[in-house]
Amino acid sequence: MNLIENTNQHSENMVAAKVIAMTQKLITVMTQDGQYLTVPITIQERRDNLFIASIKDIWHAGIWIPVNRKFHGLLEYDWITNPTLG
């Protein structure tokens, strides 16, 4: 698979979403096209007070964040940065 094909597949799964709800174990987001996704919060993330505070701040500010639609996960990188391939 060449870089262009990989980037296209990568971008199809990456969507902009807003946090609309949060529990101790799940983050619920709404994508730009109105799809609702639930993102599980890992045990490590639950123990990370800075992570929890950051997600709450993002939620209350209404900031759009990158989410992987296929795997229902938050992304460490954004739409401009390519993840490390390898």
What can you tell me about this protein's structure?
With 86 residues, this protein is an alpha+beta fold. The chain has a single domain, classed as OB fold (Dihydrolipoamide Acetyltransferase, E2P), CATH 2.40.50. The protein is built from 3 helices and 5 strands. It has helices at residues 3-13, 43-47, 49-61; strands at residues 14-22, 26-31, 36-40, 64-68, 73-74. A 5-stranded antiparallel sheet has the order 3-2-1-4-5. A hairpin with a 3-residue loop joins strand 1 and strand 2. The longest helix has 13 residues, at 49-61. The chain is globular. The N and C termini lie close together (12 Å). Residues 1-9 have low confidence and may be disordered.
Tell me the overall shape. Answer: globular
- Please count the beta strands (DSSP E, at least 2 residues each): 5
Query: How much β-strand is present in the residues?
Result: 25-35%
The percent range for helix content is 25-40%
CATH topology: OB fold (Dihydrolipoamide Acetyltransferase, E2P)
Major β-sheet profile: 5 strands, antiparallel
The chain-level mean pLDDT equals: 82
CATH class: Mainly Beta
N-to-C series of helices and strands: HEEEHHEE
* Radius of gyration using CA atoms only: 14 Å
Sheet with the most strands: spatial strand order: 3-2-1-4-5
Key traits:
86 residues; alpha+beta; OB fold (Dihydrolipoamide Acetyltransferase, E2P); 5-stranded antiparallel sheet; 3 helices; 31% strand; disordered N terminus
